[in-house]
Design a protein that fits this description.
This protein has a two-stranded antiparallel ribbon. Strands 2-3 form a two-stranded antiparallel sheet. Mean pLDDT is 89; it is low at 364-368. The protein contains 13 helices and 4 strands. The protein has 2 domains: 1-45 and 330-368, no CATH class; 87-300, no CATH class. It has helices at 22-48, 52-64, 73-97, 105-123, 129-158, 162-184, 208-227, 229-239, 241-246, 251-278, 289-299, 304-327, 333-354, and strands at 5-7, 12-16, 355-359, 365-367. The chain is mainly alpha-helical.
Length: 368
């Protein structure tokens, strides 16, 4: 006679939901943002004793300044922050959609900016302005693409861990920039702003070119991923490399090509920072935004237009919370805490939209 065993189910297990109706999903997301804002206000009240309304007024002033008086300087800086973070998120999206975990946007953007700086310093007085801009753009994209190609080739040929590889490439890029700045700065670790090779201003606004370039890139990435043959191949490789091989897709070629594009777009971000904004470079030029861009890409569900909204929200919270910290004499980490609260809530929301938690029933399963 077979021995009867009592098998106890786990306390809970996670089950994938059926696709939620789009408007219900967005209602959940909106409710989540409201809850995260309430939590942020509660934290601010505990630390500053200011009401939620007062906190948001300070945040508004910190992001937009005083638009009603005709001053739009703060608004343009806010749009510039959105442009750079969005550009990095757009760069990461093709690789992530292919399930290549590119954590090297920081280094790829730094190398792109490094290429821009070399061109501005070494060629600024020898080439005409239009030719110099073209050389800066091409060189920056090629440098970023090269920094993306190195881990891609090792992944395609030797199946190395791309996450560790791209993170190490960040470190190498940072040290290259540190050494270059030390040499050119005469040991001062500062390169004075370079006058040659700066991106053009429109109406005296040095941020507008950056914003327009990223707007065009947003449309390009959306069309590329959704309507091009390359975008289709990226989706198939991301779903299953075995399926991709079965239908005749060269997986190694797709990995290498996609990472070259990803790195080139990061190089564009570096160029916009160096030639368009700072006119100089240091190890903190990208400022950690390459890692924030990872979250933007994921939270935007690899959709460039949703990423615009997510980038705007994160930049608003970061700049606004920074203003609250300055006004109320708080540690600068307050801004990071606020952004972290919102991101944690949004990530939890996306998880609950896609999955449900099933608790075990009272009955036990019996197996013969």
């Amino acid at each position: 006679m077979a021995k009867v065993k009592h098998h106890r189910e786990p306390l809970f297990h996670i089950v994938k939901r059926d696709d939620m109706v789009w408007w219900q999903a967005w209602l959940v997301r909106i409710a989540t943002i409201v809850i995260s804002v309430f939590l942020m206000g509660l934290l601010s009240k505990m630390l500053t004793e200011k009401s939620l309304l007062e906190t948001f007024e300070i945040m508004y002033r910190g992001v937009f300044g005083r638009i009603e008086t005709g001053s739009t300087v703060m608004l343009w800086k806010y749009l510039q922050e959105i442009a750079i973070l969005l550009c990095l998120a757009l760069a990461l999206t093709p690789a992530f959609k292919m399930k290549f975990w590119n954590c090297g946007a920081e280094g790829q953007a730094l190398i792109g900016g490094f290429a821009s700086m070399i061109c501005m310093i070494e060629l600024g007085k020898t080439l005409s302005y239009p030719v110099l801009l073209a050389v800066i753009a091409v060189t920056s994209m090629l440098a970023g693409a090269l920094w993306g190609l190195i881990p891609a080739v090792f992944k395609a040929l030797f199946n190395t861990n791309e996450t560790l590889f791209t993170l190490m490439m960040n470190y190498i890029a940072t040290q290259i920039i540190a050494y270059y700045v030390y040499l050119k700065g005469g040991g001062s670790n500062i390169i004075q702003p370079v006058a040659e090779g700066n991106l053009p201003t429109i109406g005296g606004n040095r941020y507008l070119v950056n914003i327009l370039v990223v707007a065009l890139l947003t449309v390009f990435v959306y069309v590329y991923l959704k309507y091009s043959k390359h975008g289709y191949e990226i989706s198939v490789v991301g779903e299953s490399q075995n399926t991709a091989r079965y239908i005749g897709i060269n997986v190694k070629k797709v990995i290498i090509r996609t990472m070259a594009i990803s790195g080139a777009l990061c190089g564009v971000a570096g160029m916009l920072l160096v030639a368009g904004t700072d006119h100089s470079i240091n190890t903190n030029t990208v400022g950690g935004q390459g890692f924030t861009a990872i979250m933007v890409s994921w939270l935007g569900q690899f959709n460039p237009f949703i990423m615009v909204f997510m980038t705007g929200l994160i930049c608003f919270l970061r700049l606004g919370a920074g203003k609250v910290a300055d006004t109320c004499m708080l540690n600068s980490a307050f801004a990071d805490i606020v952004v972290g609260i919102v991101i944690l809530c949004v990530v939890g929301c996306e998880f609950l939209i896609r999955y449900s938690i099933k608790f075990r029933h009272g009955k036990k399963e019996v197996k013969a």
